Amino acid sequence: MFGCQGDGLRVRSWITLISGLVECLGFAGAVFGWASLVFVLKNEGYFSSLCVNTTINGTAVEDCSRQDEQFSLIFTIASFMNNFLTLPNGFLFDRFGTTVARLLGISVYSAGMLLIAFSTTASSILLFPALSFISVGGILFLMTNIQVGNLFGTHRSTIITLYNGAFDSSSAVFLIIKLLFEDGVSLRGCFVFMACCSVIHLFRTFVLMPRTHIPYPLPENYTYGINCGGTQDYTIAKVDEKNIQTSLAEEEVAFTESSPQGQNTNKSERSFKSCFLSWFFLWHLLWLSVMQLRHYLFIGTLNPMLNHLTAGDPSLVSRYTNAFAFTQLCGILCAPWNGLLMDRHKGKSREPGQSEQEADLKAAILSLSLTALQCVLFSVCAATPILPLQYLTFILQVLNRSFLYGGNAAFISVAFPSIHFGKLYGTVMALSAVVSLLQYPCFALIKGTLGGDPLYVNIGLTVLSLLAFINPLYVYLHCRRQTAQRRASNKTSSS
User: Fold this and answer.
1) What residues contact 239, with CB distance under 8 A and at least 6 apart?
2) Nearest CA to 117 among 26, 185, 29?
3) What is the mean pLDDT of residues 109-122?
4) Given this model, what pLDDT does residue 353 score?
């Protein structure tokens, strides 16, 4: 067994990193492979009672628009729960630590898998709690694994984005279930197996993860894990306590701006409230919300959109659904590039008087801008009603989604005090979830007033996506102000 200091800690860190990637890749973001699962559920007859026979231009056809609405509503609720409950989960994680948060995640995730496994066409309503449970459990897996980046110092942002990429790629899990289903494996068997895999999560929780948190920056002689002896909890508790005190006293402020009362926010007063009420948080929330709405509506309406573009050809719908799901596997390859963009200044000499956190923020500008540009390009392709072009749409979607969530977590980790990461990450995800609820009325508008043609809604969302550029512009202006203030201060001190 490995020790917890020196080479032993490095080995354990790599084992924790790799096993965490496997966990996120195989389980955490499965809910976002919803389009593949909908194809299977439709074949199984879920909500088929909502389909009615109708006549269009003298031809008898089956109208399943109400069935599509139910599936869209399920995904809307699940994606909302995925983000909104990140807020209480973030407070839970900050307050009670890794073990408690992971045990909760494992419980609800397994319950969701079992609900789908034992649901039938007669009990289709079980899909509503099932998908929400899988969604909430998956985000807890991701949240508790993000802290592993703290073990890797200068590569912290890269590791965080890598985990988010694995989270995105795990949406291909439902594609695997779809392919197994087409080969004769039962839906129940697939989901019972997924529930049984909770043993893996429990093993990681008690053997490879800390009980509380992995602090940042990592203190000297930091220890964690089951083999660290009887003083493990004491050591970690002392490290966390020391880290909180030093973070409040020494951590660089990501930005200096006016409080609601017009007073400057001092770096030793960086409370959760001051972070939450800052313009930085507001523009970052807008950045995440508009792009996330674009992605959620695309995923939630992919099946009916493909039906519309293929004129209902089931073989073409299946082919494009598989193509979309296969591209999701590339998320883990795309996401680290965003982290490398944010970490590229590490190891370089900083300007005189420039803090590490200021350098981090400056490095984030390109990442934030590139992510917004990707979203606009993806939205333009999605709005173009040309079926072969959707292959490019799928590529841009997975690239942008990997950059979006990896960049979100990495930006919060560098822009705000680390002791508030869980709360701020949960808050921004929860508030963006409220905005994402707009996807259902958008879907209802497409299926109703627009007669199944999403063109005008897609154009509107493309224009809305342009608002995401406000965040990198604000960060750029802030960094420029900081640079000017620092140079003026240096001139004053030298004279």
Assistant:
1) 215, 219, 222
2) 185
3) 93
4) 63
What is the rounded CA–CA span in Å between residue 16 and residue 169?
A: 19
Integer CA distances (angstroms), 99 to 119, 163, 241, in order: 30, 19, 18
Statement: residue 205 has pLDDT above 50: yes
Q: Name beta bridge partners: 258.
A: 264
pLDDT of residue 7: 61
pLDDT per position as a tens digit, 31-68: 888 888 988 998 898 988 888 877 666 677 777 788 88
262 by Cβ neighbours in 10 Å (0-12 / 13-18 / 19+) ranks as: exposed
**325/81 Cα distance (integer angstroms):** 22
Mean pLDDT of the chain: 81
Report the range of poorest mean pLDDT among 54-58, 117-121, 178-182, 454-458: 54-58
Give the HSE-up count for residue 40: Cα atoms under 13 Å, Cβ half-sphere.
27
> What is the C-alpha separation between 367 and 289, in angstroms, rounded?
17
Two tokens, residue 474: 């604000």
| 3-state SS track over 25-92 | HHHHCHHHHHHHHHHHHHHHCCCHHHCEEEEECCEEEEECHHHHHHHHHHHHHHHHHHHHCHHHHHHH
How far the first Cα of the chain sits from its last, in Å, is 60
Does the pLDDT of residue 104 top 60, yes or no?
A: yes
* Rounded CA separation 20/38 (Å): 28
| Side chain identity at residue 418, one-letter code | S
Classify 97 in phi/psi space as left (phi over 0), alpha (psi -120 to 50) or beta.
left
∠ at Cα 430 (429, 433), nearest 5°? Answer: 85
Q: How far apart are CA 420 and CA 385, in angstroms?
A: 44
Kindly report the backbone phi and psi dihedral angles of residue 54, in degrees, each rounded to the nearest multiple of 5, phi listed first: -145, 170
User: Which tens digit of pLDDT belongs to each residue from 345-387?
Assistant: 655 666 666 666 777 788 788 889 999 999 999 999 999 989 9
pLDDT higher than 50, residue 259: no
Q: Which of 283, 285, 262, 259 is closest to 270 using CA atoms?
A: 259
CB 379 within 8 A of CB 462: yes
- Whether 244 shows a pLDDT value over 70: the answer reads no
- The three-class DSSP label of residue 376 is helix
Give the pLDDT confidence score for residue 6 in this predicted structure.
54
pLDDT digits (tens, 9 = 90+) for 294-353: 988 888 788 888 888 888 788 898 899 888 888 877 777 777 787 777 766 655 666 666
Tokens at 342, concatenated: 């944010």
User: Number of H helices and number of E strands within the chain?
Assistant: 22, 2
In whole angstroms, give the CA distance from residue 447 to residue 439: 12
Collect all residues with Cβ–Cβ distance below 8 Å to 361 and sequence separation of at least 6.
Answer: 254, 255, 414, 415, 475, 478, 479
